[in-house]
Amino acid sequence: MTTTANRELVTIRTRASTPGWPEILAGAVTYAASYLLVAVLLPLIEDEEVLGVVGLVVSGVMGIIALAVAVLIRIRGLSAFGFRRAGLRHMMVGAGLGLVAYVLGAVVAVAYMTLAGDPQNIQGSYQAAAAGGVLSLVVTLVAGSLITPLGEESLFRGVFANALMSRYGPWIGIITSAAIFAVAHGINPVLPVAFVVGLLTALLFRWSGSIWPGIMLHGVNNATALLVPVVLAAAGT
Predict the structure, then answer these.
(1) Residues of the chain where predicted confidence (pLDDT) is lower than 50
(2) CA 198 and chain centroid, separation
(3) 21: which residues sit within 8 A by CB, 6+ positions away?
(4) What's the rounded Cα separation, in Å, for the pair 4 and 198?
């Protein structure tokens, strides 16, 4: 077999063992179907605290289901989707960047609301759940800083960013996946915040080769966003 043929065979095998358009499409269709179902059913919950917790859990579960469908398409293994062991340094950087993401997100959210004239707080139910007492706070933190990041990172970084980076290069994959992640949160003040988180987690994924540092970043960002209003409210009483 010639050297050129060997290289082509390696390329074919590599592409077959990494996520690509089949996984992107399978994950996207599954996530979109789940999103539509949730959009119909979630507003039926009248209790704002319960709505907040359920919303956070569902956000994570949708991503996990979409990942499962993508995995079953061809590859049938989680390692190719970034579920690999991460080093302590990568995890610590992820935790630190989670705080950075929160600060940057707050700045861009205020800028968005000022420029767009859109003062709505679409995360009010999450904050209500966090402020609903000790038990409600614990459940909300578990949902928001563990389940939501696991599901969203599984799909948006493990499938989308992963596949796009391997096909079109790191920067196209990083920026495009972050944009998709932002738009998935809706055209509202959360959009620029999600874009910041998406950029940083995709960069971490590229650097570490693992999805876990991005989950750490995402979890710290979410936990901080849930805790800060509770702390400020307690300090003001």
Answers:
(1) 1, 5-14
(2) 7
(3) 163, 167
(4) 38
Name the DSSP letter for residue 79.
G
**HSE of 85, CA atoms in CB hemisphere, 13 A:** 2
CA 52/CA 70 separation, integer angstroms:
28
Q: What's the pTM value of the predicted model, to 2 decimals?
A: 0.91
What does the pLDDT look like over 39-54, one tens digit per residue? 999 999 999 999 999 9
Neighbours of 207 (CB within 10 A): 14
- Tokens representing 237 are 């009483």
Residue 176's contacts (CB-CB under 8 Å, 6 or more residues apart) are 160, 164, 168
Rg (CA), the chain: 19
CA distances from 232 to 48, 187, 226 (A): 20, 27, 11
**Tokens in use for 205?**
């994924």
Number of residues in the chain:
237
Q: Which two tokens stand for residue 224?
A: 């901080």
